[in-house]
Structures are given as structure tokens and as C-alpha cells.
Amino acid sequence: MSVKTFVAQRLLPLLARLDLLEAGSSAANAALFLASSTTSNAIGTGQKTFTTQSGKAFVAGQFVQVSDQANPANYMLGQVSSYSGTSLVVDVVSVGGSGTKTAWNIALSGPGGATGGISGGTLTGDLGDAPEVTVASAATTNIGAANSNKVVVSGNVTITAFDSVANRRKLLRFTGTPLLTHGANLILPGAADMQMAAGDLAEFSSDGSGVWRMRKYQSVSESNYGRSLLSTAGAVAARAILAALGLAGEEATEVDVASAATTDIGAAASNKVRITGTTTITSLGAGANLRKRVRFASALTLTHNGTSLILPGGANLLTAAGDIAIFESNASGNWRLVSWTRAASLMAGGVGPFASIGATVDLGLYPSHFVVIGGSTATIAALGSSASLAEPFYFARFNSGHTLTHNATSLILPGGKDLTLEVGDFALFEYLGGGNWRLNHLFRASGWAGAGRTGQIAFPAAQLASTDPNTLDDYEEGAWTPSIVTDGTTPTDAVYAAANAGGYIKVGKLWIYWGRVALTSKGTGGTGNVRIGGLPAASAADAAVTVSRATGLTLTASNILTATVSSNQFRMEQSGASGYSNLPWSSITDGFNFVFAGVFVGAN
Predict the structure, then answer these.
(1) Are strands 436-444 and 411-412 parallel, antiparallel or unpaired?
(2) Euclidean distance between CA atoms 521 and 519, whole angstroms
(3) Nearest by Cα to 188 from 213, 151, 153
(4) Do residues 388 and 430 both lie within one domain?
(5) CA pair distance 250, 195, nearest whole angstrom
(6) What span, in angstroms and rounded, lies between the C-alpha atoms of 74 and 576?
(7) Same domain, 515 and 414
(8) Contact by Cβ (8 Å): 160, 222
(9) Do residues 548 and 597 lie in contact, with contact meaning Cβ atoms separated by under 8 Å?
(10) DSSP single-letter state for residue 283
(11) Residue 223 lies in a domain
């Protein structure tokens, strides 16, 4: 995490929460005990039911005051009997005024005191637990004269001052988006103007001269960096930190900028920008050393420029409604896309699809290791050389039926075969360095596959041997040709019948083989002992051969024919009660026919 990100996302909200603890109360918490209702009820004691907002903090046993919005002198004071969903039930114990009302403010209150007279002085000032009252925003907004300490400020008119009423403290809730302008009568944190958002809360107090100062502030969205400031000191310090880091606009709300060939996001008054419209964008303006978070309201095309608008892979980018991008500009005002999140992406941070795909898709150019490869159908022969061996794995989703071309060096595919992809397929590629890649896993949209064929597993033609005893690293089927050899002189003129053939299956280190040696002539000049050669691999140790049938040979009385695999040959033997001995060349005839099968463990 960068220093900027840490300060903006972690430190500033933490400072805000510390301010909240020091203040001993939260404007946000206060809002949990404020509600309204349009339920028709007659003022009177007894149980009253109100339909109100959900998500409030009312619990049974609390006292609340329910006041007529038009005239707070009409009210009911009672104890909460129950609160569930949008239903609030109150046992009313005392009332003021009369009549049936349909617009109520509901606020947390204390239990009513004993009834009695007041003498010896005059009560002045507004009631601290009175329900909210609404004041419309204006150049001078009269919150001081409001007959409650809880004021709803409606409307969007810029506020430059509050009425000069001395020694007051007011909690304001904004339902519009007015701009508060710092000035002699309205002192704001950091001496900077503040853009309010609907739902924001702020506490102001006035001094003996009627000058107002913001004491606490709570943004409706704590994700807006710097807006969760709850004290003037905290606001000043945080704004200074943000300015020093180039994040001074982070606390502003999202602003709209219409798409155009040059869409100047740098000139926007916020670091959070929504781009509207569908016009193709070729430039983002010339703002220098900026970072903007951009949300797209519609589908449009971003056009890559190798200098001024650098996009992943050097390809144009088609946006979708709801996509979010982070752009950064350098000192020369050239912009680069550094992060991209699709509104409908499989994984946050995935990039693409892209408007064009060529024979080389350089995965290392993309800012995420989760890449969506789209565009028109193409044959992909290489994955580029921009990736790093420090982070070699890339996960790709294919949005078109591309073909991957096998190359034994630069693009190694299972089974050494080209691979035709389907829409929705996923692949895990590993970078091997030097522009060379290997496909490690393929996940078919229609089912798992290991070599581009659903329901099958393929291994490369050249075994990738593993020393792990629990890892299957090879499977192979093939043919071989058995031949007669000797440990002496092997005839060169032996003649074999058409039935002379063999086959094998290799599973890991296990070799399963079978075959037949069929001679029509054993040739001349042979000496020594008989061997069968031509095995496709050498055995790790001697292993018995199963003899199915043998004709055309002479054995010593009472002996039987046996054979043993030794290295990549059979050792032909005759065995009896006195042991076994090698089968001499002179024992076989021109019609020698030997059918066999067996299993051995190879070196790999």
C-alpha cells in the first residue's frame, strides 16, 4: 500500500474517529434517534402506532417526543413499547395541544417531569431536545432563529452566512447539496469552502458576536477522503496532509463531465468524476500530476495514444455502464490507465475486453493478472515478453473463440497441440522468461478440460518429470517392434513375419507392454544366447515376462520357457527343477514364434 493510499484510506478516517470519541457524541448517532411519520393520529394519551423509517435505534423503554411538524406545541410524550421494521408503537403519557395530525417529527426525549409552576425568573433559549425543524438554504440561512437545536437545511442555494444570533449551538442535517462559503461570519475548517451532500451532518456554534464556526462534521459517505472530519483542528490538519499529497480534491463529491474527443477530467472540481455520454474519447486533457477515479455512465470507446492516453496492451478500450477506472497524469499532462474494474467483471481488477487482439497478446502490459481477452476471433501465437518472473502467473478469460498456436518454446500447450477456445473459457498461463509461456490449466466454459478436449486430460509430448511420488506426470500410448538379438553375434539376415509387432501404455513410471516375435527365417551366423530387443524404455530393475505362447524352439527335457526384462531387452531362459539357464541361439528354429506381455517400472 502506498503512503498516499495509507494516509487517505486509513489515517484520516482514524483521526476522524478519534475526534468523535473526544467529542463524546456523534452527529451520525444523533440521526439514528430522529424520524418522521405521516400516520394519522389524534393527540391523546394511550398507545399510538406510527409508520416511520426503518434502521433507527429506538428500543423499548426509551422516551420519545412526537411533535406536529406544523406546530411543535402540538405534541405527545411517551415511552417506546416496540419498534420493528417501520412500525413504532408509543405509550403516550402526556400531551400538549390537540387535534388529529398527519405530519410528525419523532425524537429521543427524557421522561416528563412533575407538573408545577415556575416563578422567580424567565426561561429563555430554545429547547435542546425539541424535534427537528426545517430551514430553507439561502445566502443567509436563519438557523439561529430556528426554535430547535436540530435543524434540517433544505435546498441547494449557496450559503455565505448564518443569522447573527449569539451563543447558540445547532446540529444541522442537509437534505440538499448547498455550498458552504467560508467567511467572517461562517468559519469553516481550513478556511476552505465545503460542498455538502444530502445526508451530511454538521454542528455549528456561535460566539457572543453571532459569528458561527463549524465544530463537528460527518459525511454521509466515509469513503470520501477527508470528509469525516469532526473537529476544526482535525479538519485543518487533514486538509494540509491531503494538499501535501496531491489529494486535496478527494473530499469532494462525484461530479459529471460529458464525454467528448477531449474530456478534460483534470479540470473537474473533484477527484471523483462520472463521464456521461457515448462520444469516443481520444484525450483526457492536459492536467498535470493528477489522479482521478472515473466512473462511466455509458458505453464508449477510449482511444489508445502511446504518449497522452496510455491504455493496457496499447489497445483501444470499450467501456460499459458502471465501469470504474483510475487514471494518473504525469508532469507533462499525459494520462495513463493504472486500474480498471468492470461493472460486470468476474473479478475486481480484471481488464478488458479489448477492441483488438493480434497474433501477440502481451499479457505483461496489463495492470492486472486477471485479463479478459476479447475482440474479434484471432489466432494467438505469442503472449509477449513484458511479464515478470517475480509474478509469473496470469489468469485469462476468453470472450471470443480464439485459437492458441502451440510452440515448443514460446507457447507450450498441453499435448503439443494447437488449442481452439470457446467463449467463456479460462486459462492459467505461466511466464517462463525470455518471452516464453506455458499453459498450466484450462477450464472450459462447458466443463473442465486439460488439452482443449472436454472430459479428457492430455500430457505434453515431452514428459515433465516430477519427483513427487503423488504426482502423475505422464501418460503415453505407442507401438514398438520386437527383434531377435543375442549376447554374442546377432544375425543380420533374419526374416520376420507380418505378425511381428508390439505395443505399450505408459502411466507415470509404469510401462505395460505386449507383443509377438514371429520369424520365417532366423538367419545365419548367430552365436550366444537369445535376447529380445527393441523395448521402448529401460526397466529400473529386472522384471518377469509373461509367456503366452512359444513355438519353434527346443528345450531341455522337463524345462519350460521363461523370460526376464533386463534394461531394454528380454533375457530368454529355460527353467526346470535344477534352476534356470540362458536359452542358446541353437535352440530356436526358422519358425520361432513367441507371444508375450508384461509390466515393468521404468526410470521415469
Answers:
(1) parallel
(2) 5
(3) 213
(4) yes
(5) 12
(6) 120
(7) no
(8) no
(9) yes
(10) B
(11) yes
Residue 434 gets the label, from left (phi > 0), alpha (psi -120 to 50) or beta, of: left
Q: Kindly state the cell numbers that stand for 260.
A: 467528448
**Beta strands at 186-187 and 140-141: parallel, antiparallel or unpaired:** unpaired
Domain tally, the chain: 3
Distances (CA, A) of 391 to 368, 385, 386, 395, 440: 11, 13, 11, 12, 15
Residues 222 and 260 both lie in one domain = no
End-to-end CA distance of the chain: 46
Cα separation, 352 vs 344, in Å, equals: 11
Residue 476: CA count within 13 A, CB half-sphere: 22
CB 27 within 8 A of CB 203: yes
Q: Could you list the beta-strand ranges (E) of 208-266.
A: 212-218, 255-258
DSSP lists the bridge partners of residue 394 as 429
Beta strands in 308-355 (DSSP E): 309-310, 317-318, 324-329, 335-341
d(CA 136, CA 309): 45
Contact 23, 216 (CB under 8 A): yes
Same domain for 594 and 523? yes
Q: How far apart are CA 150 and CA 300, in angstroms?
A: 46
* Pair (297, 441) in one structural domain: yes
Kindly provide the residue ranges of all beta strands, DSSP E only, lying in 207-250, ordered along the sequence. 212-218
In-domain check, residue 79: no
What does the pLDDT read at residue 375?
64
Question: Which of 205, 237, 269 delimits the end of a domain?
Answer: 237
Could you report the per-residue pLDDT of 300-328, keeping only the tens digit for each? Answer: 888 989 899 998 767 777 787 888 889 99
Which set of grid coordinates corresponds to residue 393? 502467473
- Residues 99, 175: Cα–Cα separation, whole Å: 29
Residue in this structure with the C-alpha cell 480498471, named with its chain if needed? 340
Q: Which residues does the chain have with pLDDT short of 50?
A: 3, 7-8, 16-27, 114-127, 222-233, 235-236, 243-251, 345-356, 448-454
Q: Are residues 223 and 264 in the same domain?
A: no
Please indicate, yes or no, whether residues 262 and 218 belong to a single structural domain of this protein.
no
Domain hosting 560: range is 477-601
In this predicted structure, what is the pLDDT of residue 13? 52
Instruction: Note the residue count of the chain.
Output: 604
